[in-house]
Amino acid sequence: MSAFFDFSRCCLLCPGGSPMRLYFKKHQRIVRERDFKAIMAYHCCVSKGLMRLYATPNGIGMPRFGVSVSRKCGNAVVRNRLKRLAREVFRLHQQDLPPGRDYLLILSARTPINKECAVSVMTYQGFESQFLKLVEDLSQKPCFQK
C-alpha cells in the first residue's frame, strides 16, 4: 500500500523511522463566534496580500486554528477549497507553530495587482509559503515578545 500512499503529505517520521499521523481534531478548531471576536479583539495581527492572520495566547499549550473566507472570494466551491487549503497547511505544520496560541486566518478578495496572487487561483505551495511567512512575522510582533 505504501507504493500508492504518499506518507510525506499526512505523516511525520518518528525517530524510529515509522510514520506518525498528523490530525486536525475538533478541540483544535475555533468555530464559535465569541472565540473569533476574542481573537480579533486582542489586536495582534499581520497581513500580506489577501491573507490576514490574527493570534492570541490560549493557555492550553497547543495551537488552535480557525479560518474565515469572505464571500467576495467566490462561490461556495471556491470558498470551501480555500478553507480546505488553510486547514491542510495548519494540519501539516502544527508541530512547527509556537504552542499555546489561537490562530485566526481571514481571507479577503481585494483586487490583487497580480492575477497570480488572487486567492481563488492560489496553489497549495503558494498558500503554504504565505501562511508560514505570516506566522513568522507574527512571532516577531511586540504583542508576543516576552
Explain this structure.
The longest helix is centred in the middle third of the chain and has 18 residues, at 76-93. This protein has a single domain, classed as Ribosomal Protein S5, domain 2. It has four helices and six strands; from the N terminus they run αββαβββαβα. The chain is of the alpha+beta class and 146 residues long. The model is unreliable at 1-5 (pLDDT under 50).
Q: If classified by CATH, what would the architecture be?
A: 2-Layer Sandwich
Q: Could you describe the largest sheet, including whether it forms a barrel?
A: 4 strands, mixed
Poorly predicted runs are 1-5
**Terminal Cα span:** 47 Å
Report strand order across the widest sheet.
Answer: 3-4-6-5
Number of domains: 1
Helical fraction equals 25-40%
CATH top level label:
Alpha Beta
Order of helices and strands: HEEHEEEHEH
**Which descriptor suits the 3D outline?**
globular
Strand content: 15-25%
Task: For this entry, give a set of tags.
alpha+beta, 146 residues, Ribosomal Protein S5, domain 2, disordered N terminus, globular, four-stranded mixed β-sheet, single chain, two-stranded antiparallel sheet
Summarize the structure.
With 146 residues, the chain is an alpha+beta fold. The chain has helices spanning 7-10, 33-41, 76-93, 124-139, and strands spanning 11-13, 19-21, 45-48, 51-57, 64-69, 101-107. The model is unreliable at 1-5 (pLDDT under 50).
Outline the fold blueprint.
Blueprint: H1 7-10, E1 11-13, E2 19-21, H2 33-41, E3 45-48, E4 51-57, E5 64-69, H3 76-93, E6 101-107, H4 124-139
Parallel strand pairs: 5-6
Antiparallel strand pairs: 1-2, 3-4, 4-6
